[in-house]
Design a protein that fits this description.
Elements: H1 4-18, E1 23-28, E2 34-35, H2 57-60, E3 67-73, E4 76-81, E5 86-90, E6 96-100, E7 112-118, E8 123-127, E9 134-138, H3 141-149, H4 161-169, H5 175-180, H6 190-199, H7 213-232, E10 273-277, E11 280-284
Parallel strand pairs: 2-9
Antiparallel strand pairs: 1-7, 3-4, 4-5, 5-9, 6-8, 7-8, 10-11
Helix pairs in contact: 1-7, 4-7, 6-7
The protein binds a DNA duplex (16 and 16 nucleotides) through α6.
Length: 290
DNA sequence: CTTATGACCTGATAGC
DNA sequence: TGCTATCAGGTCATAA
C-alpha cells in the first residue's frame, strides 16, 4: 500500500525518534523476510529459508550500531548505522514500521517479522501480513545504492520537467504505466498516478511519446505537488497505512479520482470513468483529461 | 522492447 | 453464521 508519501511520513518519524539511539537488540522472527547480498535479486526463495546461516543475522540487522541517519528513494526506506551498516525496508502492500513503548502492548500484533530494541526502551516493529515487502541488509549505504537504488528512476518528489519528459518520450507505453514503473520514476503508485494525471489533465491511456514537452512539464509539477501535499497530510490511509505512532494519514479525504469511479468529477461534474489499465484499477475524468 | 498474465500472501468486504 | 468470490496501496517471472 505505501507509496512515496506514506514511506516519507514513516521515514520522518523514524528519523526524529531513532537517530542517535543505539540498537541494543535486533530480532528476526522470519528469516525469509531478510535478503542478504548474494541472494537472488528480488526473487529470493521463500522455501529454502532454513539453508542460510543464522549466526550472522543479528549483525545484519544493526545490532549494537548507533542510528546515524535514515534515507528514502521512491518507496524504499533505509536506516543506516554509524558503522555504515544499512538496512533497506520495502513495505510492499501491507508493510508497517511501528514504534512501541514498553508500556503500550504492541505484543498483540500479528505478522511481526523483525524488531529492534533501542537504548531508550523504544522498540521498532516491522510487520507485513501479506509479506510482499522485505528487508535487505548491506555493509554500507553505497552497497545499498549499487544493489537496489541505482536501478530506480528519479525520485518523484523532486522530479524535474526534463526528467519527466525524458521518461515519457522514450516509450510508447500508456503514460500511467510509465508512472508506475519504478525504474522510470520512483515513488508513484496507483493512487498518486491517477491523482497526478487528473491534476494535469492527461488521460492515463495516452502513449508516453505522445505527451508534449509542456504537458510533461505540467505532469512533473503535479506529481511533485500531489506527493508534497500527501506528505503534509501524513499520507493516504485506505486501510493499512499508519505512521510509526499508529496514526492514520488523512490524504484519502483529498483524493479527486482514486476510488471515485462513478462519482461526479469535482471540476466538471461528469461521471468519473473506471477501467483497468496496466492491470490496475484506473479512474479518470473523460471530460477533463485528454 | 512491450504487454499481458499469473504468482506471491493475508484480510476485508459483499453477496448468497 | 458461514461459505465463496472479489478486491487491495506492489513487484517479479514468464510467455507471447
Amino acid at each position: 500500500m505505501p507509496e512515496l508519501p506514506e514511506v516519507e511520513t514513516i521515514r520522518r518519524a523514524l528519523d526524529d525518534r531513532l537517530v542517535g539511539r543505539r540498537v541494543v537488540r535486533a530480532i528476526l522472527h522470519r528469516r525469509d523476510m531478510l535478503i542478504l547480498p548474494g541472494d537472488p535479486p528480488g526473487g529470493f526463495s521463500r522455501s529454502n529459508t532454513e539453508a542460510k546461516p543464522k549466526r550472522f543475522t543479528r549483525g545484519r540487522l544493526l545490532q549494537d550500531a548507533r542510528i546515524e541517519r535514515t534515507l528514502r528513494h521512491g518507496k524504499q526506506l533505509a536506516i543506516a548505522g554509524d558503522d555504515g551498516r544499512t538496512v533497506c525496508v520495502h513495505l510492499g502492500m501491507s508493510g508497517q514500521l511501528l514504534l512501541v513503548q514498553p508500556d503500550d502492548g504492541g505484543e498483540s500484533l500479528g505478522h511481526v517479522h523483525a524488531e529492534w530494541a533501542f537504548d531508550d526502551g523504544t522498540r521498532l516493529l516491522f510487520r507485513d501480513p501479506r509479506r510482499f515487502g522485505g528487508l535487505w541488509s548491506f555493509p554500507s549505504v553505497e552497497d545499498l545504492r549499487r544493489a537496489r537504488w541505482d536501478g530506480l528512476g528519479p525520485d518523484g518528489l523532486s522530479l524535474t520537467a526534463r526528467q519527466c519528459s525524458r521518461a515519457l518520450a522514450a516509450t510508447h507505453r500508456p503514460v500511467k504505466g510509465v508512472l508506475l514503473d519504478q525504474s522510470r520514476i520512483a515513488g508513484v503508485g496507483n493512487i498518486y498516478a491517477d491523482e497526478a494525471l487528473f491534476a494535469s489533465g492527461i488521460r492515463p491511456t495516452r502513449p508516453g511519446d505522445s505527451i508534449a514537452k509542456g504537458e510533461a512539464s505540467a505532469l512533473a509539477r503535479e506529481i511533485r505537488a500531489v506527493l508534497r501535499r500527501a506528505i503534509r497530510a501524513g499520507g493516504s490511509s485506505l486501510r493499512d497505512h499508519r505512521t510509526p505512532f499508529g496514526d492514520p494519514g488523512s490524504f484519502q479525504l483529498s483524493h479527486k479520482v482514486y476510488g471515485r469511479a462513478g462519482a461526479p468529477c469535482g471540476r466538471c461534474r461528469t461521471t468519473l470513468k473506471g477501467e483497468r489499465l496496466a492491470q490496475r484499477a484506473t479512474v479518470f475524468c473523460p471530460a477533463c483529461q485528454h
